Structure formats: structure tokens, C-alpha cells
Amino acid sequence: MQQGRISFIFLLVLLCQCGVKAVDLTTCEGDTARLICDLTSRVIACESDTASLHCDQGRIKVISANYGRTNSTTCSSGKPANQVSNIQCTHSSSLSRCDGQKECSVSASSTVFGDPCVGTYKYLDVSYICIPLGAIIQKQSSCEGDTISINCNKMIIKVVSANYGRTNSATCSTGRPADQISNVQCTQSSSLNVLATQCDGAHTCSISTSNTVFGDPCVGTYKYLNVSYICQPNNHFIKVSAANYGRTNSVTCSTGRPAYQLSNVHCSQSSTLSVLTTQCNGKQDCSIPATNTVFGDPCVGTYKYLNVSYTCAPNPACLA
């Protein structure tokens, strides 16, 4: 009895130490899947509910927040079609009230955010990170045509915010005519995604500050890139729990594909999990091409995709 009690206590301790983050990843055939433990958290609260952000260690920094609707499935149970059909409903918010706190609760309501789409049943979608105590958010600017270099040495980069455009007339203005710096309402909404894709999880990162990389949000304006990021330790490790290379529905990775490439929805490759666990388990960052060369072809003629579910465990003992 005593031995059983000790084993149970040990299990509780292990579970507390193995607080894992679950991640689902889908990658279309021909692309590359990247598994990374970046410690980003996401919370979704349906309209009239409350979103609770929480950091056991460190303090909250909100990366993005939207009150509205961008798909027809989230928070749709029991709702009529006309309340979930508008998936172009956005109302972004910085949720700065939560930054720096250990816990933060926000009501997902039009009273708080306003109503961006009357008649649509909305939800609040928040992504945030827990910044370690003592960590400082770094900021860098790079003028159009230059290259920005971020270096976190042995720690990893986490981009918090980014904009390629112009929001003031002073930055990167030397020698520029007035007409190139007068537009201070120039923002590129995809800037954060571009930087995060390129830099998150890396120790160092260099990226060209150019229209080629970011697109041109304001033609004729001389732009610059503003980036905020943190350098954080990465002591989490990948454990793949499920994976399939094939096709189990006709919707995923279907854009532009003919019907005959999508009709086989019973396509699975039994060796997928083994390949992923061999390649990725125990690593902090893992990239693997979603191709027949890597996985074999379980259904010739079908356009396939790779589905991966994995967790980020805070110490290697949790991977067993």
C-alpha cells in the first residue's frame, strides 16, 4: 500500500513537471512541416464567455487578439447558419491591459470590444506568450533596402510585434524628400507572420527589409521595419503523439486541386508516426518535408498532406 502511494505521488510530481503544450500541425504535400516548441499559448472564448490568460511563470505579453469570426466552425455549436457564415469579421485589439500581468480575464463581448459584425456570433481569439521574469523585450528598426539581424546567442528568438511601413515621419528619414515620409498611416498586417515564420525558434535571424519580402503597403513611401522580440530559453522538447501522411477529408489542402486528387479520403500511411518520432522526438525544432520521398506514396494520384499532433514537454524525462 505504501509503495502504491509513493508511486502515485511520484506520478503527480511527474505530471506537474511535465506540463505539456499540445500542437496540431497540417502541411500540404510538397511543403515542409516545422515542429517547434516556442511556448506560445492560445485561448478562444465564445461570445459572452470569458477568456482567461495565465502564466505560471513570467508575465503575459499578448501577441495578437481578434474579436469577430474568421471561420465557420469555432464556437458554432447550436448556432444557425446565418450567425456563423460571415468569416471576414475582424476587430483587432492589443489587449494591452493584460501585458505584464500574471493572470488576466477578458470578457468576450461587444460591450468591451464593440460589434464588428452585427448579427454574427463572435469569439475572442488571443495568442500570447509568457515572458520570463527579468527578460526584456528588444526593439530594432531597419530602413528599406537594409537587412535586419537579430541575435539571441544561445537563447531563441520570439518575435512579439512587427510592422513594415511607416508610422512616423522621423525614422529612416535622413535625406528623403517630404513626399516619401509624409504618409504615417502605412502598415503591413502580414509583417509579424513573415518575421515569425523566418525567425521564431532560431538563435540568429537575418531578413531583408524590402518590398520583395513584405510586399509594398504604400507605394511611393520610404518604409522601415520595426520589430519587437524577446530572447528566451528553450528547454522544451518535442514528442510526436500522432501523425498521418495521406488524406482523410476532401477539404484540407484542396485549393486549386481537381476532384480526382481529393476524392480518396481513406488514404493513410502507417509508417508516418515512426518517421516523425525518429526524426523529431527529443528535439526543440524539427523540419521535415511532406513528400513521397520521405514517407512513401500511400495513394498514387491523390494529393496528400501531413497531419501531426505533438506536445512540448519541459524536460526529457517527460518524453518516455
What do you see in this structure?
The chain is α+β, with helices and mostly antiparallel strands and 320 residues long. The protein folds into three domains: 18-37 and 236-319, Sandwich (Jelly Rolls), CATH 2.60.120.740; 40-131, Rhamnose-binding lectin domain (RBL) (Jelly Rolls), CATH 2.60.120; 138-232, Rhamnose-binding lectin domain (RBL) (Jelly Rolls, Sandwich), CATH 2.60.120. The protein is 16% helix and 34% strand. The strands form six sheets. It has a three-stranded antiparallel beta sheet with strand order 1-15-13. It is globular. The two termini are 26 Å apart. Residues 1-19 have low confidence and may be disordered.
Topology:
Layout: H1 2-17, E1 21-28, E2 32-36, E3 40-46, E4 50-54, E5 59-68, E6 103-107, H2 110-113, E7 123-131, E8 138-143, E9 147-151, E10 156-165, H3 178-181, H4 191-199, E11 204-208, H5 211-214, E12 224-232, E13 237-246, H6 272-280, E14 285-289, H7 292-295, E15 305-313
CATH superfamily name of the largest domain? Rhamnose-binding lectin domain (RBL)
Helix and strand run? HEEEEEEHEEEEHHEHEEHEHE
Quickly name the level 1 CATH class of the largest domain.
Mainly Beta
The geometry reads as globular
Quickly give the CATH architecture of the largest domain: Sandwich
How much beta, percentage-wise?
Answer: 25-35%
The overall pLDDT, averaged over residues, is 84
Low-confidence stretches: 1-19
Tell me about the largest β-sheet: 3 strands, antiparallel
> Count the strands?
15
Number of domains: 3
Q: What share of the residues lie within helices? A: 10-25%
Cα distance spanning the termini:
26 Å
- Rg computed from alpha carbons, rounded to a whole number of angstroms: 23 Å
